Prior knowledge:
Layout: H1 3-28, H2 34-41, E1 47-50, H3 63-72, E2 76-83, E3 89-91, H4 103-106, H5 120-124, H6 130-135, H7 152-160, E4 168-173, H8 182-192, E5 208-212, H9 215-224, E6 230-234, H10 241-253, E7 258-261, H11 268-276, E8 280-281, H12 289-297, E9 303-306, H13 309-315, H14 324-330
Parallel strand pairs: 1-2, 1-9, 2-4, 4-5, 5-6, 6-7, 7-8
Antiparallel strand pairs: 2-3
The structure holds calcium ion.
Amino acid sequence: MTKKKVIVMVVAALLAGALARAYVQQVTLPKRGLEKSAAAAGIPRHAVIAHRGASYLAPEETAPAYVLARDMGADLLEGDIQRTKDGVLVLLHSHAVGETTNAAQLFPGRANDPVDRFTLAELKRLDAGSWFNAAHPRRARAGYAGLKILTLDELVTLAESGTANRPALYLETKSPERFPGVERDLVELLRRRGWLGTFPGPERRAKVIFQSFRPESLARLRELAPEVPRVRLFGSKLFDRAAWDAMTREIAGGGAQGVGPTAYLCWPWNVSTAHRAGLLVHPYTVNAVWQFRILALLGADDGCFTDRCDQSLRFYGRPLLGQPEAILARNGY
Ligand code: CA
């Protein structure tokens, strides 16, 4: 071997060593102890979080989206809580009711109105499925036309009606400033339905996790139901590392169990700061296998919000408990 070759090999070995050391320090070490805190909070490891249900395959936040997620084997059914004019909690992501419904036809001039300007009876007249068929012709199904907006009460019933799988709920207080007292309504409904604690069994899996972009909403939920794990969401404008670190400290100080950042903020140094603060990291919204792979490499794989819980299950080597076509057919969609 020439002297030059030896030098190249030594330099390569040193570089590989430095990289491995950095990886262990940035990714592996900060995760120590996290499994314990996740287990203590009753949150599954590599949680498969069905974002608005299996919303790639069915209209978001409707019954078939949640039935699919439940029966394919998702750990958590994610949904957005808003409140009607007459005080009923419903699941809808959009601020404008007409975005995923036919409100423009049924209630001319009100399509951009928010949920709190509609009574439940009015919302129940809307078709929350046909928009999906028009937007995604290849995934369209006749059974999606005429789907109804779900109430939270109906979602709880759906979650507890699974036979093969018993998913937990992952509920977001959406724009809580629009709905004063929504946290109390939410906790009261879940308490009445017996959905604040943990599932029976040695894992003591939490039946529900709360999430919000608003710290004051999470603080209120902590007062009302301290036993329920909480995750603080955040989005853009945190490219600055110091801002991320400050945010993480604030979240950990607020007693939350995790952070839900948009996935492109999951740089290893950000993820490790959160992990060192004892916070789980649940990025949103992750739909492709290559994205799951990268996030796993970066250590940001405590759980992912995904429209494609089927992909997420496969990525973690968990066979689907049921095939989408069979589940939809069995349930009349
Ligand atoms: Ca949400």
